């Protein structure tokens, strides 16, 4: 567990915690976040990350029983998202930000990918 | 002198033609991190060699050391190519500025910025500091390992300064269209490089392969920009997934590495040659008695 913690820096762990909270539909407690991260992290590590993110104003929290449930704070709803979408809709801009993890696929590519995913699942 | 200048130009063009397939073959046989650097080095040196030779010839025409016909064509071509260079440089600069502007004023948490948006997208925005921008839709589509892989992949782009490599390739191709095929090769190499970095960090190639495929498929509904030709040869994403799933021994680089080194040396010699030619032409022009 310690090795795992050392392998991920503070920032990386906080980014993962934040990403997990964004992926969730509701506010999550530290225990639920631990479950959502799905790897051998210590409970205290997750609590520390959540507290730090809350202190930075990135997360809001509500008491649930004896613990807190956290959710991401969304500021100026959708504004940055809309502007970024415009950027990504431009061919030149998309190339500069290397937005290729989400890449354009041909129909053939799609078929191949689904096959590869299916094969990966069988193993 | 005049024939020398034409021969240097011909050598630079021939070199560009040969260097493209050689560096492409080499890049498929070495670690993608190294591949991206080799490809950029080849593209830049080929561009320097051809532009150098062209400039020497054009200056020789201007100072009257080479007859206007057919030498004048070199001047025209040089002006056109430098114009292309300026257009690409301005385009890329503007694109970076637009990205920075789009994100201005919104909160960053460490290097991660999540945007509330159902459509799945993720990208690495260079700058100080660079940031990983991901939509909430993309995060929802992936599991915990997939999210780790995605963040590690985008972060690898920032840490490896992949934007610089991509832009360098674009600039090289602007002044030397013969190396244009290397632009796609560089893009592919930096994506593969980021995939490998993610695989190292997550410690599970199969999981990263899964995440790459998943992210591409959920991003499909987003359909940014113009669609790619349908039914074409297998595109870059399936190739990346296959490369991650493939655990066989890497093919040997051997002969291609030697050839690439030879070509890089030759390109360096041509660049030096062009510089010497340029110097001689200007010296001759400034001392008419010579």
From TrEMBL, chain A:
Parts of the chain that traverse the membrane: none
Pfam families: Penicillinase_R
Keyword Hydrolase: no
Keywords per UniProt: DNA-binding, Transcription, Transcription regulation
Classification via Gene3D superfamilies: Winged helix-like DNA-binding domain superfamily/Winged helix DNA-binding domain
Top-rank taxon: Bacteria
Protein's UniProt keywords contain DNA-binding: yes
InterPro entries per record: BlaI_family, WH-like_DNA-bd_sf, WH_DNA-bd_sf
Family as reported in the entry's similarity comment: Belongs to the BlaI transcriptional regulatory family.
Protein name (database record): Transcriptional regulator
Lineage: Bacteria, Bacillati, Actinomycetota, Actinomycetes, Pseudonocardiales
TrEMBL record, chain B:
Cofactor(s) required, per the database record: Zn(2+)
Keywords tagged on the record: Hydrolase, Membrane, Metal-binding, Metalloprotease, Protease, Transmembrane, Transmembrane helix, Zinc
Entry's transmembrane regions: 6-26, 38-62, 68-90, 215-233, 253-271
Protein's UniProt keywords contain ATP-binding: no
InterPro entries for this protein: Beta-lactam_resp_regulator, Peptidase_M48
Pfam families linked: Peptidase_M48
Cofactor, free-text remark: Binds 1 zinc ion per subunit.
Domain Peptidase M48: 114-168
Keyword Zinc part of the UniProt annotation: yes
GO BP annotation list: proteolysis
GO MF terms held by the record: peptidase activity
Family: Belongs to the peptidase M48 family.
Protein name stated in the entry: Zn-dependent protease with chaperone function
